[in-house]
Amino acid sequence: xxxxxxxxxxxxxxxxxxxxxxxxxxxxxxxxxxxxxxxxxxxxxxxxxxxxxxxxxxxxxxxxxxxxxxxxxxxxxxxxxxxxxxxxxxxxxxxxxxxxxxxxxxxxxxxxxxxxxxxxxxxxxxxxxxxxxxxxxxxxxxxxxxxxxxxxxxxxxxxxxxxxxxxxxxxxxxxxxxxxxxxxxxxxxxxxxxxxxxxxxxxxxxxxxxxxxxxxxxxxxxxxxxxxxxxxxxxxxxxxxxxxxxxxxxxxxxxxxxxxxxxxxxxxxxxxxxxxxxxxxxxxxxxxxxxxxxxxxx
Length: 298
Known about the structure:
CATH superfamily of the largest domain: FAD/NAD(P)-binding domain
Number of helices: 6
Number of domains: 2
CATH class of the largest domain: Alpha Beta
Order of helices and strands: EHEHEEEEEEHEHEHEEEEEEEH
CATH architecture of the largest domain: 3-Layer(bba) Sandwich
Oligomer: single chain
Helix content: 10-25%
Radius of gyration: 21 Å
Distance between the termini: 16 Å
Largest sheet: 7 strands, mixed
Structural class: alpha/beta
Number of strands: 17
CATH topology of the largest domain: FAD/NAD(P)-binding domain
């Protein structure tokens, strides 16, 4: 029986484990993919107080090692179901069943999939949802990035240092992301904005050879590319909680202060309802959730 089980080993989950472990709690962290969450794929973090510049990998590794050193138990096991009703909570993974007095959900978000024909056919054959993971495969080649938020802008910036040409395709006439990043991209000779346009079709036999983009006036351009990077937003990883906790219309767990609709169950990080989703707010959530757990157990 654990004092607390934390589902997810991103910034929020690992921060929660650090605070809970320092308070002397018996803590188990469960992660099905890799510790660090999505920040592990970030080339450079430059907006975390006290750290002028650090790679996402190094930041994640430090969090993981700190949590382990303080006594948190971390297991790489995918959670497949939960039973949160009652004083004793049950978590089922692909390998075992675990019991705990409290639960902290920190499952984060994942990239939204592109909803056009044959998308899955091209994954690994020119199509990627992670520029920092796969960008080097397209060195000195032409690529397109789909999206208009910070992720798309950051992907375009990263790729512009590696590839020959970046087409940044966005369905609106202006970007939603950081204006400073937009200005930097505007000054790059190898970045071209394709605005008021939607991705209509992916072309190619064994791998991507080109894409068709359709403008508002229904005209279509064919862009010859080798790689396509999708950055059209993210969705919360809350599938297993749909009929268990209160979710908003977008699937985020409703929470004002990391508490949920079930006593002893807390939520931290990008998976909960809130206005700002940044590295600092994830760490803040992890701290608050762990504090709530300590108070609940007392």
